[in-house]
C-alpha cells in the first residue's frame, strides 16, 4: 500500500453523498432528454449538449463528448436512448482517465525526494488554506513529518487561519508578519524543514488576480528563492478551485496556468453544489490531473480523485 492508502479513496458512499446535488441535477436533465424518445438522433444530441453545458462541463469538453457520441451513432447506425447513459459514462471516463492525465495521479512522495515541496495557489475563498490543513492531516496520519509555510502575507487572516490549522493538525508552521516578503517566508520554511529533516513542506501563497503581472512575478520569485534551499522545488504546484463557482473556476484555472506551471488540481466544495460537472471540463480543457476533491467539512473529506469512481458515482441511481 502507498503512502496515501490512508485517504478514503474506497469510501464511495461518501462520494455519492457529496455528489448528491450534482447527480440529482444531471439525472433530472437527462431524464427529460430521453423522455418519449427511442433513439439517439440529432435532437437528442442537441438536448444532451445543453444538459452538459448547463452542468458546467464547459463548451469545449461538451463538444468533444458530443462528437464522440455522434461517431458511435454513425458507426453503429442505431443507438437507443436506453444506451445513452452507458455511452455517456464511457466517454466521460475516457476523458478523465486518459493516459496523459491519469498517470501523474500517483501521490506517493518519490523516494529520495526530501523534503517534498508542494506550492499551493488559488484565489482567496476557494478553500485553499482548508485544503492545506486537510492535506497536512493526511500526510501526518501516514507518518510523515510535515511543515507548513504561511507565504500568503497579503492578509493577516490567511496567516492566522494557517496557524489555526497547524495547531489543529499538530504540525509546525513557519510565518512572518503580514506584509513580509512571501519569498522570504518560503525560504525560511524550507530551511526550517531541512533542519527538522521534514518529509513534506506545503507552502500557502496569495491569490490576488487583480494584477496578473504581480502574481506571476511573485510566484516566480517564490520558486527561485525556494530553489536556493531545495534545487528542484517545488515538486508540485497545486491549484485549488471552488467547484461551486462553475464557469468561474475555468477562468481562474486559465489565469493561474498562465502565471505558473500548475501540475495538479484540487476541486473543493462539491458537496454543496450541482456544478460538479466542472471537474470533467477543467481536467479535460487544461490537461492537468485533478488529484483531490473536497466533499465536506471534515478532516477526512478531502478525497483522492479517481476518475472511474467519480463517473460511476455521477451515473449511479
Give keywords.
317 residues, disordered N terminus, single chain, 13% strand, alpha/beta, elongated
Quick synopsis:
This is Signal recognition particle receptor FtsY. With 317 residues, this protein is of the alpha/beta class.
Describe the secondary-structure layout.
Blueprint: H1 12-18, H2 20-34, H3 42-54, H4 59-76, H5 84-96, H6 99-102, E1 116-121, H7 128-141, E2 146-151, H8 156-169, E3 173-174, H9 182-195, E4 200-205, H10 212-226, E5 236-242, H11 247-259, E6 264-268, H12 278-286, E7 290-294, E8 302-304, H13 307-314
Parallel strand pairs: 1-4, 1-5, 2-3, 2-4, 5-6, 6-7
Antiparallel strand pairs: 7-8
Helix pairs in contact: 2-3, 3-4, 4-12, 5-13, 7-8, 9-10, 10-11, 11-12
Report on this model:
Pfam families: SRP54, SRP54_N. InterPro entries: AAA+_ATPase, P-loop_NTPase, Signal_recog_particl_SRP54_hlx, SR_rcpt_FtsY, SRP/SRP_N, SRP54_GTPase_dom, SRP54_N_sf. Involved in targeting and insertion of nascent membrane proteins into the cytoplasmic membrane. Acts as a receptor for the complex formed by the signal recognition particle (SRP) and the ribosome-nascent chain (RNC). The protein is of the alpha/beta class and 317 residues long. 50% of the residues lie in helices and 13% in strands. The chain contains 13 helices and eight strands. Strand 6, helix 12 and strand 7 form a beta-alpha-beta unit. Helix 4 packs across helix 12, helix 7 packs parallel to helix 8 and helix 10 packs across helix 11. The longest helix is centred in the N-terminal third of the chain and has 18 residues. The N terminus is likely disordered.
Amino acid at each position: 500500500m502507498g503512502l496515501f492508502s490512508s485517504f478514503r479513496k474506497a469510501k464511495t458512499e461518501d462520494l455519492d453523498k457529496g455528489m448528491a446535488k450534482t447527480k440529482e441535477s444531471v439525472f433530472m436533465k437527462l431524464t427529460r432528454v430521453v423522455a418519449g424518445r427511442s433513439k439517439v438522433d440529432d435532437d437528442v444530441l442537441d438536448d444532451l449538449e445543453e444538459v452538459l453545458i448547463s452542468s458546467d462541463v464547459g463548451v469545449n469538453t461538451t463538444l468533444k463528448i458530443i462528437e464522440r457520441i455522434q461517431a458511435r451513432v454513425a458507426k453503429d447506425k442505431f443507438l437507443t436512448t436506453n444506451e445513452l447513459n452507458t455511452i455517456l459514462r464511457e466517454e466521460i471516463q475516457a476523458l478523465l482517465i486518459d493516459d496523459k492525465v491519469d498517470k501523474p495521479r500517483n501521490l506517493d512522495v518519490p523516494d529520495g525526494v526530501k523534503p517534498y515541496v508542494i506550492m499551493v495557489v488559488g484565489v482567496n475563498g476557494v478553500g485553499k488554506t482548508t485544503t492545506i490543513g486537510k492535506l497536512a492531516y493526511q500526510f501526518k496520519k501516514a507518518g510523515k513529518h510535515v511543515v507548513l509555510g504561511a507565504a500568503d502575507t497579503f492578509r493577516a487572516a490567511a496567516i492566522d487561519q494557517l496557524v489555526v490549522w497547524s495547531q489543529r493538525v499538530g504540525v509546525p508552521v513557519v510565518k512572518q508578519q503580514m506584509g513580509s516578503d512571501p519569498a522570504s517566508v518560503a525560504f525560511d520554511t524550507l530551511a526550517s524543514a531541512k533542519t527538522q529533516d521534514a518529509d513534506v513542506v506545503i507552502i500557502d501563497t496569495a491569490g490576488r488576480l487583480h494584477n496578473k503581472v504581480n502574481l506571476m512575478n511573485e510566484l516566480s520569485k517564490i520558486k527561485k528563492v525556494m530553489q536556493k534551499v531545495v534545487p528542484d522545488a517545488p515538486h508540485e504546484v497545486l491549484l485549488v478551485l471552488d467547484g461551486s463557482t462553475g464557469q468561474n473556476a475555468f477562468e481562474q484555472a486559465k489565469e493561474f496556468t498562465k502565471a505558473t506551471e500548475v501540475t495538479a488540481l484540487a476541486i473543493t466544495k462539491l458537496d454543496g453544489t450541482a456544478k460538479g460537472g466542472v471537474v470533467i471540463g477543467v481536467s479535460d480543457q487544461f490537461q492537468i490531473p485533478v488529484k483531490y476533491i473536497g466533499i465536506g467539512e471534515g478532516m477526512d473529506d478531502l478525497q483522492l480523485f479517481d476518475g472511474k469512481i467519480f463517473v460511476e458515482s455521477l451515473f449511479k441511481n
